[in-house]
Amino acid sequence: MGSFSIWHWLVVLVIVVLVFGTKKLRNVGKDLGGAVHDFKQGLNEGSEAENAKKKDDVIEHQSDKDKQA
After folding, report:
1. Contact (CB, 8 A) for 25 and 16
2. CA 30, CA 22: separation in Å to the nearest integer?
3. Helices (H), 1-69
4. For residue 25, what pLDDT is reported?
5. What is the pLDDT of residue 44?
6. CA-CA distance, 31 to 3, in Å (whole number)?
7. Which residue has the higher pLDDT, 10 or 60?
8. 35-47 b/e with 16+ CB inside 10 Å = b?
9. Please, what is the average pLDDT of the chain?
10. Alpha carbon of 39 to those of 9, 46, 56: distances in Å?
11. DSSP state, residue 59
12. pLDDT surpasses 60 at 52
């Protein structure tokens, strides 16, 4: 009773296509895909920057002789 059958979803899909049109739905899908792609790319760039920063932060050991001089 709580779940919809495939026929209910087909009727909803037809109504959505009639209201918005296929061109607008295609543009929404394209924009959403681009946003997800940019988000993933931003996550990868952030982790690469952190890894590069960790590699650059090298602490050199000073010997006792260097400290006294």
Report:
1. yes
2. 12
3. 6-20, 22-56, 64-68
4. 86
5. 85
6. 30
7. 10
8. eeeeeeeeeeeee
9. 80
10. 30, 11, 26
11. P
12. yes
Tokens 């979803």 sit on residue: 9
Please give the Cα distance from 66 to 69 (Å, whole number). Answer: 5
Collapsing DSSP states into helix, strand and coil, what is residue 58?
A: coil
- Contact of 17 with 25, CB cutoff 8 Å: yes
C-alpha torsion sign, points 41, 44, 46, 52: negative
The set of residues, in sequence order, having a beta carbon less than 8 Å from that of 25 and lying 6+ positions away, is 16, 17
**Each residue of 17-40: pLDDT tens digit?**
899 898 888 899 899 999 999 999
For 45-51, which contacts have Cβ atoms below 8 Å and span 24 or more sequence positions? none
Residue owning tokens 């940019």? 38
Cα distance between residue 54 and residue 5, in whole Å: 54
Quick check: 22 and 13 in contact, CB under 8 A? no
